[in-house]
Amino acid sequence: MVLDNHFPDTYHSELLQAVGLNVYAFRRYKKRDPEFRKKVLSAYNERCAVCGFQAKINDAIVGVEAAHIKWHQASGPDTEENGLALCSLHHKLFDKGIFTVKADRMIEVSGLASGMGPYKELVTDYHQKFVRKPSSLIYLPDEKFMNWHVREVYKGVACSQF
Q1: Percent of residues, the chain, with pLDDT higher than 70
Q2: Of 159, 116, 134, 16, which is closest to residue 69 (Cα–Cα)?
């Protein structure tokens, strides 16, 4: 399926709705390493690498996801070096290119992005801040995956001030 082969899951519903197709009739999942999520969340102590969010119910993590830096659909591997633990909001914004993480682990928010409500606190306040380090340096995101995200996903150039 075109969606599975070319876009991360966070894009699927929006794209199907945009062309007027039934979201549920076309939903299929590409096989992934079931350990990827566990390993990435563990590497970041089950917290969002951007904001530190963590929620649990009965010891199950809620609202924190393992995000591929280089999308799985673009042959990004299911390895910790290609993953960031991100809350649901930051995962979606990362996949949409509203912000990226540079090779030095610094967050760059696109000057093309805007928002209302708590947008400043949830997004632009993180501009030029560093993502949290994983628990072990062997899990640091690989520079080649971060450079891919900057080149292929990130929308625009950084805004010098917010």
Answers
A1: 77
A2: 134
Distance CA(29)–CA(147), nearest Å, equals 26
| Residue 59: Cβ within 10 Å count | 5
pLDDT tens digits, one per residue of 72-103: 889 999 999 999 999 999 999 999 999 999 99
Over residues 31-71, the pLDDT tens digits come to 678 899 999 999 999 999 999 999 999 999 999 999 999 99
Residue ranges per domain, the chain? 1-31, 32-152
Q: Which CA distances in Å does 28 have to 5, 95, 129?
A: 11, 19, 36
The span from the CA of 55 to the CA of 41, in Å, is: 12
Task: Provide the residue count of the chain.
Answer: 162
User: Which strand (E) or helix (H) includes residue 61?
Assistant: strand 60-61
Rounded-to-integer distance, Cα 34 and Cα 78, Å: 9
